[in-house]
């Protein structure tokens, strides 16, 4: 998506060779016009996938996911992150290792919001090693539903998340694919 790539080039901040900071339009301040375009693009890509729900994880997935859900005219559910939790029987729970925090989170979704008839589009802001998306997919599976696809705003293609998700059999659509952050320079996959 060209508008997203331009924004990454003008506003993205490279932190080392592994992390891209996009606080000025996605992770802290949000550009609603860009988010609306992102929602349109996801909705077009998955128009024929029979999506019944969009699922993301708090907090940075919510902005792009809500626009995708709006365009697809389905509900959005965001998984909540919690440090630790006593077992409850009204929620689905999965563990997800956080790339940015370098710790394991427990993520939860209420059982009343996902069911076996759902075809779910998973959306996240970044794809690094795929652990967040896999944990969301396991929650869909717990509900008996199907993952129709995974939509990523910014994929870091030099990490192995895409391959992990493809190997698990998922369709992955990334709107910007970053090939490298070496030498403080953002390069996209051709
Ligand atoms: P994964 O689960 O694929 O390893 O990592 C994806 C998650 O980690 C995303 O939900 C995102 O919040 C965070 N993340 C991973 N890499 C980056 C990055 O370079 N920049 C930012 N802002 N977040 C990242």
Secondary-structure map:
Layout lengths: L1 H10 L1 E3 L3 E3 L1 H5 L4 H14 L7 E5 L4 H11 L2 E8 L8 E8 L4 E8 L8 E9 L3 H12 L3 E11 L4 H7 L4 E9 L6 E2 L2
Parallel strand pairs: 3-4, 3-7, 7-8, 8-9
Antiparallel strand pairs: 1-2, 4-6, 5-6, 9-10
Helix pairs in contact: 3-4
Guanosine-5'-monophosphate (5GP) binds next to β2, β7 and α5.
Describe this structure in words.
With 190 residues, the protein is an alpha/beta fold. The chain has one domain (2-188): Rossmann fold, CATH 3.40.50. It is 31% helix and 35% strand. The protein contains 6 helices and 10 strands; from the N terminus they run αββααβαββββαβαββ. The chain has an 8-stranded mixed sheet with strand order 5-6-4-3-7-8-9-10, with helices on both faces. A two-stranded antiparallel ribbon has the order 1-2. It is globular. The mean pLDDT is 96. Guanosine-5'-monophosphate binds at residues 19-22, 27, 60, 99-100, 124-132, 156, 161.
